[in-house]
């Protein structure tokens, strides 16, 4: 049986499930989206700009999404431990969390892309853990969830603790950038692998900060105007490898 603690740790966590949720073959995996790198490359980003782009994503989009995933995980934990009674309402509900994310994501293209990925993640969770109360609640409250909210709920359903989830969320975004770069630009795979390791301090810092969040007031509102512009432009293109 899996049992998680509400803030920062857990017992009986599934390491394999954490690896699974970072698998590029998932419906929300790196084979289907580039974490915004493809539109950036189409706008002129070159090889030397990929690692700075990766770090910028971590500090803006990644930071916001990691906090959202952690808050969704805590809400899922509340629902799963309520045992049919009243929960304490400490974490924001899924609908409120989705509304807060929408308010912090000006680009409609980015919102739509996140929801496409989120639907895939929710479908995975519903298939693997059909009786999970948090998965059922998310389907009711936000049937088209964003990626971080669906990831947080799926992680809790599969026995991944919130500390592992926070790093998973950051790692998945970074590896999506790198995987796309290998398809879009002339990059040595060894160099690309080194970028992930080089970003480890930033990944750890963003993840650790996310674990300190307690409510929607702690959800960052960080702007990345060029990424937003590139995402909007990408929706107008008919020749592309990735949905986003």
UniProtKB/TrEMBL annotation:
Protein's name according to its UniProt entry: Urease accessory protein UreF
MF terms in GO: nickel cation binding
Similarity comment text for this entry: Belongs to the UreF family.
Coiled coil: none
TM annotation in the entry: none
InterPro entries reported in the protein's UniProt record: UreF, UreF_sf
UniProt xrefs under Pfam families: UreF
Record text on subunit structure and interactions: UreD, UreF and UreG form a complex that acts as a GTP-hydrolysis-dependent molecular chaperone, activating the urease apoprotein by helping to assemble the nickel containing metallocenter of UreC. The UreE protein probably delivers the nickel.
HAMAP family: UreF (MF_01385)
A GO cellular component entry from the record: cytoplasm
UniProt organism field: Arthrobacter sunyaminii
Main location (coarse class): cytoplasm
Keywords: Chaperone, Cytoplasm, Nickel insertion
């Amino acid at each position: 049986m899996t049992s998680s603690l509400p803030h920062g740790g857990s017992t009986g966590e599934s390491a394999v499930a954490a690896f699974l949720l970072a698998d590029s073959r998932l419906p929300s995996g790196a084979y289907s989206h580039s974490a915004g790198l493809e539109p950036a490359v189409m706008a002129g980003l070159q090889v030397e700009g990929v690692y700075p782009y990766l770090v910028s994503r971590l500090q803006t989009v990644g930071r916001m999404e990691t906090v959202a995933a952690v808050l969704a995980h805590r809400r899922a934990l509340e629902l799963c431990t309520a045992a049919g009674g009243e929960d304490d309402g400490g974490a924001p509900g899924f609908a409120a969390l989705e509304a807060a994310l929408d308010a912090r994501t000006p680009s409609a293209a980015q919102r739509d892309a996140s929801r496409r990925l989120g639907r895939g993640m929710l479908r995975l969770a519903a298939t693997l853990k059909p009786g999970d109360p948090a998965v059922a609640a998310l389907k009711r409250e936000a049937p088209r969830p964003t990626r971080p909210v669906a990831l947080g709920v799926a992680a809790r359903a599969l026995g991944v603790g919130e500390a592992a989830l926070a790093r998973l969320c950051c790692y998945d975004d970074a590896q999506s950038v790198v995987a796309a770069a290998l398809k879009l630009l002339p990059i040595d795979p060894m160099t690309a692998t080194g970028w992930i390791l080089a970003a480890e301090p930033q990944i750890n810092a963003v993840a650790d900060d996310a674990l300190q969040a307690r409510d929607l007031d702690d959800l960052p509102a960080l702007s990345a105007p060029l990424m937003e512009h590139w995402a909007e432009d990408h929706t107008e293109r008919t020749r592309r490898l990735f949905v986003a």
